[in-house]
Design brief:
single chain; 100 residues; mainly beta; Immunoglobulin-like; three-stranded antiparallel beta sheet; 47% strand
């Protein structure tokens, strides 16, 4: 493997009828996570000041032995509707984040 490289991921946004972003889907390639989800830390949080819904979200994923993966999202996340699912077969971690 390549030391110091970021984990690979795909990012796709969901859009509402008004064209506003309503959420995002992140699919992380976990091939390099030898222990699967063991020791993996996932955090989805909002950064910045709360000026209405002006905050931005960040997905942080720490896989043991890998560089911290940080993905900025251009909306404020609703922490209660964040979901993550790991597929052992595909070695993928799917994270879905809804906007508030």
């Amino acid at each position: 493997g390549c030391r110091g490289c970021m984990l690979e991921y795909d990012l796709a946004y969901n859009y509402g009828s008004e064209g506003a972003v309503t959420g995002a889907r992140v699919v992380v390639n976990m091939n390099r996570a030898a222990g699967g989800m063991k020791g993996v830390e996932l955090d989805v949080g909002n950064d910045g000041r709360a000026d209405g819904c002006e905050r931005t979200a960040a997905v942080r994923l720490q896989v043991p032995g890998e560089q911290l993966l940080q993905i900025r999202l251009p909306f404020e996340a609703d922490p209660d509707s964040t979901a993550a699912k790991f597929s052992k077969k595909k070695k993928q971690l799917r994270i879905s984040v809804q906007a508030c």
